[in-house]
Amino acid sequence: MADDSLIFVHLSDIHFRCWSGSEYDVDNDLRNELLLDAESVSKDHGQTQGILVTGDIAFSGTSEEYDIAKEWLAELCIKLGRTLENVWCIPGNHDVEWSHIQKSFTLETIHNRLRQSAQQEIDGQILSCMGDSTAAELMFRPITGYNRFAASFQCQINSRKPVWQQDFSLNDGSTLCVHGLNSTVVSDHLDGINKNVILGKYQIPKRIPGVTHLVMCHHPPDWWQDADSLEQTLNERAHVELFGHKHAQRVVKINSTLRLIAGAVHPNQRAPDWKPCYNWFKIRVSGEGNERRLGVEVYPRIWNKSSSKFTPDYNSCNGEDYSQVSLDLEPWSSQPPGEHSIEDSNTQEIIETSARGATMETEIMDPVRVLTYRFFDLAHVVRIDIASELGLLKDEDEGLQDYELFERILTRAAKENLLIQLWDKIEKRHSDEKYASNPFKIQ
Predict the structure, then answer these.
(1) Residues lower than pLDDT 70 in the chain
(2) What's the CATH number where 232 sits?
(3) Of 328, 362, 383, which one is at a domain's C-terminal end?
(4) What's the CA gap between 94 and 20, in Å, rounded?
């Protein structure tokens, strides 16, 4: 595939525990081999655009586990010549803190009511819950740990931002929109009994000319209670679907959709069929007008017990080291810049609007993501000091979770044209001189 392809690394089910990385962690060598393998593969394929993690980052959803995960992902980014601003993630069932559910009669009641609803009633029930601020807050409380971790990557999920989106430019000028879906809306210790997690129709992408949709979701459709009403529509809207949860790799073409199940980086070593694995894939458009095709090359990597390292998964690719799939795309002709935008009222859109016209030096891939990550990478008290200095704290913020508070602060900074000052204060506190200039200053 040509060099102008988009290249991604797909990981899932990393399952970091509080003791991961200790001297007695049997998975230390496994993770080290994945780092070495990723570095080697990247030399063959070129610069990756992103590392996509389809859930189960932690094992129990605790802050300790996320700290360890962040440290390891930073190592992976270094091996790939990228930074943590190039990571995108979604929650899985292991990112849910079950104790929040088991201690709340109200939340257990909400889960039971949704699971007992007929498929045609589920979306209405979700709407009712999200319209009740108390119920909405309760429903996202079990992934508080995930949200604190994911906020620095702009991948937090809540009632105001139930799905995150990220655009990438394809080689023909069209857009690849990555959607982070949340299959933990209703997820707890009862998940596996009838495979009854719930997705909701509101998460299915809308059809937009010139936009190719890639979705990330932890649970595959056979775990959704509402799969009968959603799976076909999802397959018609999304050309690439990334899933986790099942600890086995799968590369499946469904009409004009490619479904990739990553397998698990960290399956249980006591499992009878222990096969750690992960994926690389490339995306490129060929043809034009009415003859457009999406080419996807998938390079599955799997643990080889005999050599104790990762190698190509030849069994998944008919004896080859990769699978190549061509998918039909809708007709589209290129438009002048600025004519297409995906409707989204989240924080990133507000900041991006304020950042238009900002200078972009080569060391800064995306000033919005860099600003967000650098802000969240500071200590909590330092972030509070900066927000106070810029007058971005309000009485109405009392009681918010920290990631919600700082999301508001970033939004206010954009609305009040304070991104230049915010960038300068953040970089001064980091004092590492990583970036030579402020990308929000218009030259």
Answers:
(1) 1-2, 335-365, 443
(2) 3.60.21.10
(3) 328
(4) 15
Q: If you ran DSSP here, which 8-state letter would residue 411 be given?
A: H
Confirm whether 437 is domain-assigned.
Answer: no
Residue 197: count of CB within 10 angstroms of its CB: 26
E strands present in 209-364: 211-217, 238-243, 249-254, 257-262, 277-286, 293-304, 309-312, 323-328
Q: What is the pLDDT of residue 317?
A: 87
Q: What is the pTM of this model?
A: 0.89
| Cβ atoms of residues 316 and 357 within 8 Å | no
Helix (H/G/I), strand (E/B), else coil: 16: strand
Number of residues that make up the chain: 443
Identify the sign of the CA torsion 167, 48, 300, 244. Answer: negative
Residue 372 structural domain? 347-430
CB contact set of 124 (below 8 Å; sequence gap of 6+): none
Do 295 and 366 share a structural domain?
A: no
Does 213 map to a domain? yes
pLDDT at 349: 56
Measure Cα distances from 38 to 33, 81, 118, 378 in Å.
Answer: 8, 11, 45, 28
Q: Does residue 441 belong to any structural domain of this protein?
A: no
409 shares a domain with 265? no
pLDDT at site 339: 44
Phi, psi dihedrals of residue 48, rounded to the nearest 5°: -80, 145
Q: Which residues of 137-147 are buried (b: 16+ CB within 10 A; e: fewer)?
A: ebbbbbbbbbb
Other C-beta atoms within 10 Å of 93: how many? 23
Report which of 151, 146, 131 is spatially closest to residue 184, judged by C-alpha positions. 146
Same-domain status, 351 and 311: no
**Residue 372 sits in the same domain as residue 256:** no
Handedness of CA 139, 141, 144, 147 (dihedral sign): positive
Q: Decide which of 328, 358, 378 is a domain's last residue.
A: 328
* 131 and 185 in a common domain: yes
Please tell me the predicted confidence (pLDDT) of residue 22: 84
Instruction: Output the CA torsion sign for 4, 251, 276, 57.
Output: positive
The answer to whether position 339 is within a domain reads no
